[in-house]
């Protein structure tokens, strides 16, 4: 009887020992599935971000290339116009009607690919000379915008007008003109070069922008001159109310932005640039949907694989749960996974620096059970100045990038194996320096502060106009450090002093 009772007791004891393993096995199975899914989703998000960054770079390069081409195009058209204006000024406007001038206009227009025609108008708008083979009888262009502009404004600079249809050929052209003055400085007429819009169409066709991409040449006030693909009645339409002109071009003459088109409502990644010498803007937009099409296919394939992996892991977990007597291998895998998770738990996911937990563990090794420290210790506490204002002005995504940039400056100035950079919380960071005295820590803190300033990150909420940091330093000699809590509190107090004294500075803790 006693032997039976002993047997029952042993069986119950074994079942009780197995229960935690069974629950742990189930928990581990779910955790693995969750981890795989989370890591895959994070990787997909990073891949998506990378694709969009590549698209931004491509769009920016396209806009720069087109801006350079447009600058060159108008420069090549303006050179003969300026030369004709100079000849008329010195030879008198009467030289405009000479056969020699007509031949010069014809040869010059033929030698410049983008020029459709060259024209000289007298002060009343009558045709004085043209590069065309013949001039219409009683032709007068006094009603044209460019003629009215030069007649009203005494400026020697070139003027680019809106796209119009040529009265002589019926083609769409962009007028580039200059005012002609007589020897007394009075208005004598206008010299005009007409640039074919078809020239820009041919140039735009060289670029691969996908099926839904767009290339636009517009006036600085938002009036469209040329666009690929063309839309009905798009020439002469205004896109000044679009977000690109209303927001981004007001802030910067060149950059990238992801906005919805005001003309066709397509979400695009734009590169934009205003020309240096002419009141024109070029836009190159890539469809966000097309940019991400390949990524979406990859994402669906990855998700399908993940579903299979998760299902397989669940089935494996069930088998493992049922056959716990063969769980030695599972236990080994669990230890490996636990070690990996512990390592991840000691690192900040945004900056890659050690997290606060890791920091506490390291300090615990330096201050064991209240025993004195055996070598010098120093601590630098760091805080980004006016960070709340930065988040309010630029958004939390930009705020995260700002934190990462400061972390890179910190990491870039650490050159000793034992030094530990920590993200202490939010925008606050720390650097723990074993074997370093207060003066050495202060010098390192200054290098980090200068490195952040050198980055030149824009921060309108900071009186300096750029991102800056405040730093507090505390250091103690061997066997002279206070408790672990006081060690941190004194560095934090020094940081408070730096912020209180005006920020963008390093403060060393003083006993007073």
Shape: elongated
Radius of gyration: 36 Å
Q: Within the CATH hierarchy, at the fold level, what is the topology of the largest domain?
A: Beta-Lactamase
Helix proportion of residues, in percent? 40-55%
Work out the helix count.
13
Low-confidence stretches: 1-7, 13-17
Query: By CATH's scheme, which homologous superfamily of the largest domain applies?
Result: PAS domain
Number of domains: 3
CATH level-two architecture of the largest domain = 2-Layer Sandwich
Overall residue-averaged pLDDT value: 85
- The count of β-strands is 16
Listing every helix as H and every strand as E from the N terminus to the C terminus, the arrangement reads HHEEHEEEEHEEHEEEHHHHEHHEEHEHE
Distance between the termini: 80 Å
Q: Give the strand content.
A: 15-25%
Main sheet specs:
6 strands, antiparallel
Question: What is the level 1 CATH name of the largest domain?
Answer: Alpha Beta
What assembly state would you assign to the polypeptide chains in this entry? Answer: single chain
Structural class category = alpha+beta
């Amino acid at each position: 009887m006693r032997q039976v009772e002993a047997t029952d007791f042993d069986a119950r004891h074994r079942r009780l020992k197995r229960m935690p393993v069974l629950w742990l096995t189930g928990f581990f199975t779910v955790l693995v599935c969750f981890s795989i899914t989370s890591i895959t989703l994070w990787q997909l998000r990073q891949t998506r971000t990378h694709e969009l960054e590549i698209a931004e770079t491509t769009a920016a390069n396209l806009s720069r290339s087109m801006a350079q081409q447009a600058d060159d195009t108008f420069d090549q058209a303006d050179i003969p116009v300026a030369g004709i204006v100079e000849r008329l000024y010195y030879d008198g406007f009467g030289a405009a009607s000479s056969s020699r001038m007509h031949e010069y206009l014809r040869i010059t227009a033929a030698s410049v690919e983008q020029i459709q025609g060259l024209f000289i108008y007298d002060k009343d708008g009558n045709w004085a000379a043209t590069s065309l083979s013949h001039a219409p009888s009683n032709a007068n262009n006094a009603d044209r915008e460019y003629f009215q502009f030069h007649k009203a404004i005494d400026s020697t600079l070139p003027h680019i007008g809106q796209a119009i249809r040529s009265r002589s050929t019926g083609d769409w052209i962009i007028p580039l003109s200059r005012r002609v003055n007589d020897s007394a400085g009075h208005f004598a007429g206008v010299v005009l070069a007409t640039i074919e819009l078809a020239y820009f169409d041919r140039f735009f066709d060289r670029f691969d922008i996908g099926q839904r991409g767009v290339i636009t040449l517009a006036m600085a006030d938002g009036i469209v001159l040329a666009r690929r693909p063309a839309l009905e009645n798009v020439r002469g339409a205004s896109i000044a109310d679009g977000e690109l002109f209303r927001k981004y071009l007001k802030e910067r003459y060149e950059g990238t932005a992801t906005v919805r088109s005001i003309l066709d409502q397509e979400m695009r990644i734009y590169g934009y640039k205003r020309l240096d010498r002419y009141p024109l803007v070029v836009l190159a937009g890539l469809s966000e949907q097309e940019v991400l099409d390949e990524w979406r296919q990859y994402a669906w394939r990855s998700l399908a694989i993940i579903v299979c992996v998760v299902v397989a892991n669940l089935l494996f977990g069930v088998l493992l749960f049922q056959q716990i007597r063969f769980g030695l291998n599972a236990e080994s895998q669990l230890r490996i996974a636990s070690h990996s998770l512990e390592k991840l738990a000691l690192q900040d996911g945004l900056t890659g620096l050690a997290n606060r937990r890791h920091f506490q563990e390291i300090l615990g090794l330096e201050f064991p059970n209240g025993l004195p420290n055996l070598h010098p210790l120093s601590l630098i506490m760091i805080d980004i100045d006016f960070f709340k204002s930065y988040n309010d002005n630029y958004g939390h995504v930009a705020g995260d990038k700002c934190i990462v940039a400061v972390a890179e400056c910190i990491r870039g100035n650490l050159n000793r194996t034992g030094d530990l950079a920590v993200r202490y919380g939010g925008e606050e960071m720390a650097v723990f320096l074993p074997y370093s005295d207060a003066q050495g820590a202060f010098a390192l803190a200054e290098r980090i502060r200068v490195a952040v300033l050198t980055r030149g990150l824009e921060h309108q909420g900071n009186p300096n106009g750029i991102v800056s940091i405040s730093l507090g330093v505390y250091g103690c000699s061997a066997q002279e450090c206070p408790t672990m809590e006081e060690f941190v509190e004194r560095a934090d107090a020094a940081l408070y002093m730096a912020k209180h004294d005006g920020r963008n500075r390093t403060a060393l803790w003083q006993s007073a």
